[in-house]
Amino acid sequence: LVSLNLSNNSLDAAILPLITSSTLTSLILTNNKIQLLSPDFLSGVPSLQTLLLGRNNLRELPAFTESSVPR
Hints:
Number of strands: 3
Shape: globular
Radius of gyration: 11 Å
Strand order of the largest sheet: 1-2-3
Order of helices and strands: EEE
Structural class: mainly beta
Mean pLDDT: 89
């Protein structure tokens, strides 16, 4: 799996820990109900290059640390 499009599904942040893939490079989560983003959710997708979060209810973005961002 290289690309996953879960847009327009009324998903909230509870789905994020379930998204894990070492090969996923693109994750599209636009137009859902995500309000909070945990900085450690990126550890489950180490190859991620593109993350689209538009049209959600994000209140703030976490302060990602160097160790939480995949290389």
